[in-house]
Structure formats: structure tokens, C-alpha cells
Write a structure and sequence with these properties.
InterPro entries: Aldolase/citrate-lyase_domain, Citrate_lyase_beta/mcl1/mcl2, Pyrv/PenolPyrv_kinase-like_dom, Pyrv_kinase-like_dom_sf. The structure is a single chain. The protein contains twelve helices and ten strands. It is an alpha/beta fold. The chain folds into two domains: about 10-225, Alpha-Beta Barrel (TIM Barrel); about 230-275, no CATH class. Helix 3 links the parallel strand 3 and strand 4. Helix 9 packs parallel to helix 10 and helix 11 runs antiparallel to helix 12 (about 260-275). The longest helix is centred in the C-terminal third of the chain and has 19 residues, at about 230-245.
Amino acid sequence: MSAKPMRSMLYVPGDKPRAIEKARGLHETGSGPDAIILDLEDAVAPEHKAQARENVREALKLRWPCPVLVRVNGLGTPYENDDREMALLSGVDGLVLPKVEDARTTGELHVRVPLWAMIETPKGVLNAPAIAATAGVRGLLVGANDLARELKTKPHPERLPLLHALSAVVLAARAAGKLPIDAVFNDVRNPTAFARECDQGRLLGFAGKTVIHPDQVADANAVFGVSEIEAREAQALIDAWNAARAEGKSVATHNGALVEQMHADEAGEVLALWQATQPKGQPGGQ
């Protein structure tokens, strides 16, 4: 299935009105995320849940420059029904469901907005293929903090203890034609390590990254996006392929390498991502 690019998805605590307003203005600075996730779950203490829900209700009445999702509280909590009802009646662009462990959770939730299932437990990882295959699920979001805790691992700069689980989520999402989104990076004071983790996530096949601070958005957009140089190179490859096909050839040569249909298709995907992420009014934009 085709889907809007989600290079960066910014979590914003629902009990922080000033943070919500700041997030709404990020696109004016040219560093806006591809989606905002207004958070009613982990980022909000129990005593602030009701007020956070009202804050999010008011925020959803406003015009936003990007899709706005709401992370609701999970099944079995005293907040789940009120959260979902508020979000759906307020015209939310999607629901983020925490700690999804089986396809029944997503399959039995009959709503008319995209669902983003968070994979945060070993059981969720093992059932990720069925969860991703559920109609209505747009993507899988990794919740690495909870996952690491349940796996009893220790922190590692290269996330070695989590690599199998991370790749399993990517595999499940890609097999179902959905978007795999990498986990948050907690140390907002270490942009170098954040950029390195973005590079790793892109290498693993993730389509984007969830972030917890506006300063992380630009790096995530850059790593999971397409540069102008990459777009030009993709176009040059497609031109070489089209020229070869016009001559009746089944392969082409570009920059000394053989080019086949799969390479042309990949270049087309690069161009599509470039065009989809250009600001309106810019070349390639909408």
C-alpha cells in the first residue's frame, strides 16, 4: 500500500499546551516533522490524564500543517475508551496503539482512521507479521525502551541486543506493505549519537523515526529522506534505462554499472520520496 512518507514522527505530551503550540509552528521554521503524535500515554502521569485529553481535544480543533495522531492509553486501562472516543470525534488523522501484542487488538478495533501499532514486547515482535497484515494498520512503531526492559538487556551504543527484534519488525512491516518506524532516542543532548542511530535505522530498512524533541526532526528527515544529489542521480539512472529500453535493450549501463528493471524501479521510489517531501511551491513539491 502507498502511504505518506513518515521520516519523522514527533511525540508531544498531551499535558503540555505550550509544547503542543510549539509543535504546531515547527513547519514555519522549515524543520517540521512528517507527523505529530499527541501523547496521552507514557508521557502523561495518571493525575494529568483527564486534563491532557482536554488539551488534545482543543488542539485537534486547530489547523495543522501535517497529520496529527494521538497515542491513546492501552487496552485494559481506565482511560482507553475516553481517549479513543475523544480522538475519533475530534477528527484525528490516526491512532497510535501502545503495546500491541496480537492481531486481535488491531483487527477488532473498527475505526475509520489509520492505526499505528506499537511493538514494545517480545510477544509483539513474534506476532508482528499478523499485526502488520491487519487491514487498517498503516505502520509498526518500535517501542525500544519497554522492549529492552522485557528482554532484560543492557544498553549498548549499537543496539546489538535489539538488532534481531528491530529487523523482525522491519521484515513484518515491509512484507505487509506497511511502514516500519524506528524507536525514539532518549538523549536529546547527544545529536551525534542520534544521527548515528538514524543511520543504523535507515540501514536496517526503517522508513522513519519517532522523536521526542524538535531538535531531532531535521536529522531524522535528512537521514530517512532523499537529498537533491540523490534525486538527480536517480533521475539520471532512469534516463539511462529509458534510453536503453527505447533501443530494445533489456539492460543499460550507468556510471559503469549494469542497470536492470529493479534498479529503475528503485530509482523511481527514490524520486517519489523526494517529490513527496518537498515543500509546497518548491521544485518537485505539491
